[in-house]
Amino acid sequence: MSQENVEAFTRGVDAWNRDDFDTWIELFDPDLEWLALMEVFRGREGARSAWKSFKGEAGLRVQFNDIRDLGDSVLALGEAEGEGATSRLSFSGELAQWATYREGKVIRFRDFGSHAEALEAAGLSE
Predict the structure, then answer these.
(1) Position 126 in a domain
(2) Domain ranges, residue 61
(3) For residue range 7-40, what is the model confidence (pLDDT) as tens digits?
(4) Which end of the chain, N or C, is surrounded by fewer C-beta atoms within 10 Å?
(5) Can you tell me the distance from the alpha carbon of 75 to that of 97, in angstroms, rounded to the nearest whole number?
(6) What is the rounded CA–CA span in Å between residue 60 and residue 71?
(7) Looking at the 3D structure of the chain, how many domains does it have?
(8) Rounded distance, CA 93 to CA 80, Å?
(9) Cα Rg for the chain, rounded, in angstroms?
């Protein structure tokens, strides 16, 4: 099932970047726990709030050039960029995401502000 998780993660990134909320939200388990950098979102309603915040307010786009199959989870290393809704200041930087799957849906999602932090958390320090 692990390759299916990598493919599901990639579908989620594609849906996110093309603003396809309906496809994106279906990839999450109703009991989702999303540990964002500064906030925790729970369930699909939490994911909806995260979408509004990260997509609507910051226009966040993501790109992952290193996606690792960890069995029941996927670790993705890449970058994010966006623009402040009020300030109009552009930002970009490293982003890593660790998604854990149950029956084809993301049950736990954790964001990291650096690749090194994510690799260490996953026990893959380089």
Answers:
(1) no
(2) 2-121
(3) 999 999 999 999 999 999 999 999 999 999 889 9
(4) C
(5) 6
(6) 28
(7) 1
(8) 6
(9) 14
